[in-house]
Predict the 3D structure of the following.
Amino acid sequence: MLFTIAMDKLQKTIKQLEFNNFEVFYAKDIKSAKDIFENKILKTITFSNVSYADSITMRKTGVLEMLKDMDSIEFIETFSPDDPWETRINQRRKALTTDLFLTGTNAITEAGQLVNLDMIGNRVAAITFGPRNVVLFIGINKIVKDIDEAFKRIKTISAPLNAKRHENFKTPCQKTGVCNDCKSPQRICNTWTITEKSYPPKRIKIILIDEELGY
């Protein structure tokens, strides 16, 4: 399925990610991504607990259900609708000390940089520091030319569409479809991060899926 994005662009991005010390796995589709996670990642790391930050792409793979069914590990749930807000926040703090953390990213540049924008900060905090292993599930539609294109993509695609997912939120971008640099109490655009390299090397593992997935 490499026809979905220019071959040289995809190969260049993978090469640059690896040069920046990320461990990269190419998956032709969602099913392959789950197989890679189960057979090429889980079998090479030692972990007793796991958690995650929200990612549409990650959820589509079904890896969360697989991990929840593993009796040998502690699964730290951070999004239970049955839990009060303070409990969910405390769980997200606890998630920063796990052996394994799963999520996605808002954009990847062709130079191999991860660019993210977060509301609370638990997702970008975990990518940056804390969990011993981080696995990112990323569709090829997240690949952009450079940092400027990453900012543009996030402000015009990722942030507005993610805001629309929260029907109880009231932000201008839900109506306009672009970032308005609002002062809404429910503003989801609060913390930017640019991850230039993985430290330690291969701590951040990327499963790059040859499909357009997520926002």
Remarks:
- Residues 171 and 184 are 6 Å apart (CA to CA).
- The longest strand covers residues 133-139.
